[in-house]
Design a protein that fits this description.
Blueprint: H1 3-8, H2 35-40, E1 57-64, E2 67-73, H3 78-91
Antiparallel strand pairs: 1-2
Length: 92
Amino acid sequence: MSEQNQNWFEVKVIEVTKTEIAPRNCNICGCNIPLERLEALPGTQTCVNHSTEPKLIGYMSVSHKTGSEFITVDPRDREALRRAQRVHRRAR
C-alpha cells in the first residue's frame, strides 16, 4: 500500500469532555433545579414551577417521509393550537 493510502486510513482521536454544570437552587422556593433544565437553559434562576416563561405545547408534523418538524404552540393562542392539532392528526 502506498504512503498516500496509508495516511488516508489514519484516524485522529479527539477527547470530548462534558462541561460541568454547578447545581443551583430556585431563587423563589429554594428547591434544586434539575441538571437537565440547567443544561437546556444555563442562565435560569428558577425551577419549572416558578418559571415566568409561558409553557408551550409541542407536536410532531411529518410533512414528508424523510423529514419531520416539531411545532411548538402557545396554548393561549386557540387558533394556532387548533391548526397544530389538525396537522398532528393528519400526520398520524
